Amino acid sequence: xxxxxxxxxxxxxxxxxxxxxxxxxxxxxxxxxxxxxxxxxxxxxxxxxxxxxxxxxxxxxxxxxxxxxxxxxxxxxxxxxxxxxxxxxxxxxxxxxxxxxxxxxxxxxxxxxxxxxxxxxxxxxxxxxxxxxxxxxxxxxxxxxxxxxxxxxxxxxxxxxxxxxxxxxxxxxxxxxxxxxxxxxxxxxxxxxxxxxxxxxxxxxxxxxxxxxxxxxxxxxx
Length: 222
Ligand SMILES: [Zn+2]
Known about the structure:
Blueprint: H1 19-22, E1 27-29, H2 37-51, E2 64-67, E3 71-79, E4 82-90, E5 92-94, E6 100-103, H3 104-112, H4 120-131, H5 148-167, H6 182-195, H7 197-203, H8 205-215
Parallel strand pairs: 1-2, 2-6
Antiparallel strand pairs: 3-4, 5-6
Helix pairs in contact: 2-3, 2-4, 4-6, 6-7, 7-8
Bound molecules: zinc ion (ZN).
Residues 123, 127, 184, 187 line the site of zinc ion.
């Protein structure tokens, strides 16, 4: 993460003394994983990068659960009178007004390779930022300089194009998982914004511009 060091000069990065780090109980490890300084610092640093230049904070977040690796999560689907439950394997999860759950193995991979476009910490904390507006729907609270109509137009156009490309088996700079819904499209766009900013700016300049204004950052210049 050396390439982003200048952005960390902001006061919010004092995570080991304040904010994320001060709440000792905020981060909890489970399944035999011991909480360490490395875990705390690595996850907090990645989470702080999203909000380093803006006044937004993770107000809804009370717990970050860290598993050693991928974890099983129970998903319930209501189908008429039938409730179907299944277990799926996940690397990260973000609950509305609830915890962020992360696989430490995958959180480390996201930090170690900061150009592959994948970062589970950015992804789950992007959901938390989205959720601050009251709904996790791909429309976060915008910067005063942004118009909701512009955001909707840009993201709606880009999302629909993305869905078409994914359905046609084409790969794009934005991960195919973004086709799952507007909220996932936002979260994977945030991953790419920080990890492959030049490619995103080239392929989806309007999306890049909206995210750049939202976060008050221009990673393509780092
Ligand atoms: Zn997601």
